[in-house]
Amino acid sequence: MSTIVWFHAHPDDEAILTGGSMLRAAEEGHRNVLVVATNGDFGEVPADLGPGETLVERRRAETTLSAGVLGVARVVWLGYADSGMTGWEQNGRVESFLQAGLDEAAERLALVLREEESTVLVSYDWHGNYGHPDHIKVHQVGRRAAELARTSHLFEATFNRDRLQAMAEVINRLAPVEGQDRVDFEGDTDDGVPLGMPETELTHEVDVVRFAGSKRAAVSAHRSQVSDTSFLLRMSDEHFAGAFGTEWFIKLGMAAGLQRRWILDPS
Ligand SMILES: [Zn+2]
Q1: Domain map of the chain by residue range?
Q2: Burial of 109 by CB count in 10 Å (0-12 exposed, 13-18 middle, 19+ buried)?
Q3: pLDDT in tens, 86-124
Q4: Domain spanning 3-250: which CATH class is it, in words?
């Protein structure tokens, strides 16, 4: 059995990006450890916060719920502040993840890898899927932590840009999502680079269709983040499974060439 450390930028990224693979790992009896870099303190503030309740408390509670659905055995919070999108003033705050020293943050992640005796780390592609500064930092910190802890298997979670855009065109043509002009996975990213990575640069395509219902339940646990999650939750079950029933990874050190295989298959 393996222990997989899943390193994510904000509460809710785990469900959207790697939820199906986490479910599959748990079902096979592996240990899932979720490490969340930031507190998600610049997320949407829900109208129903209780007296004295903070957004960070709400988001941690939602993450506990999501982690329960996804079969996560341990959640570790690195506790950095969100950096916000590119150019936001909070990018410069000393407590932000963006301002954290690379080695300092990586050492904290490496500590978890060592404690867990984990040989598998999952982080993000080089532009953090859509260019959010915290996501890019996850990529950088993941690489460095894998070096520090001598982690044998580093996977970078991503989206298959070509596949998602083809799917968006089908949805726009056949079943437009209510309240959405058109689904477009290519525009509207933070760094101007289209979402995810081209198919030619990927190594692993993991079929998680049978976990789509639970993945959707984990996404909906993050109820306070309406703008991140509501579009996904307005899709029909069928289209959700079509768009999010596959997860993609780039394995570091492996020649590119996309194959349908599981991240724990011997390579
Ligand atoms: Zn995020």
Answers
A1: 3-250
A2: buried
A3: 777 777 788 899 999 999 999 999 999 999 999 999 999
A4: alpha beta
